[in-house]
Write a sequence for this structure.
């Protein structure tokens, strides 16, 4: 178990907080991939949907940095701008530093462990625990391939084919 804030004799862990529902802002949605990091950006939790999109098991990533500083790519997880192909890995660190939620725009892609580029949508939010404040980040995202494909088809239609 990975420790988090320690106040007197009350030493908490991510596992115990998750088990007791102490983490604010963590809702379970079967469709959303969820990754929780500690304040340093190290992975503390990943659900099955995240494992499937990223292509790696949580046990292989636990405690590893999510490449939050915008550094060159990790071997299993990278966020990029689909147009410029520039790294967006600094978004998790920015969320934590500014203590504010960031929405992933419509041109963000995940490069998974196989090198596959997957369009995603979602958000990165500060993870707060009552009495401790911000202790990390919650990244909630989903595969947006079908949505982007559909949007591309709609915008490619001649204006006479679009119902107003």
């Amino acid at each position: 178990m990975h420790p988090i804030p320690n106040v007197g004799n009350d030493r908490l862990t991510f596992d115990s907080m998750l088990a007791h529902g102490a983490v604010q802002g963590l809702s379970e949605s079967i469709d959303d991939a969820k990754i929780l990091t500690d304040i340093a950006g190290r992975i503390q939790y990943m659900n099955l949907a995240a494992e499937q999109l990223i292509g790696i098991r949580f046990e292989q990533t636990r405690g590893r940095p999510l490449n939050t500083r915008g550094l060159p790519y990790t071997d299993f997880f990278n966020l990029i701008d689909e147009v410029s192909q520039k790294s967006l890995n600094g978004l998790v660190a920015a969320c934590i530093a500014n203590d504010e939620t960031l929405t992933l725009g419509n041109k963000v892609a995940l490069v998974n462990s196989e090198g596959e580029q997957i369009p995603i949508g979602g958000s990165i939010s500060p993870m707060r625990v009552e009495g401790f404040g911000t202790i990390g980040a919650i990244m909630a995202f989903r595969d947006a391939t079908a949505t982007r494909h559909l949007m591309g088809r709609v915008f490619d239609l001649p204006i006479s084919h679009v119902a107003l």
Q: What stands out?
A: The two ends are 55 Å apart (CA to CA). The CA atoms of residues 106 and 121 lie 7 Å apart.
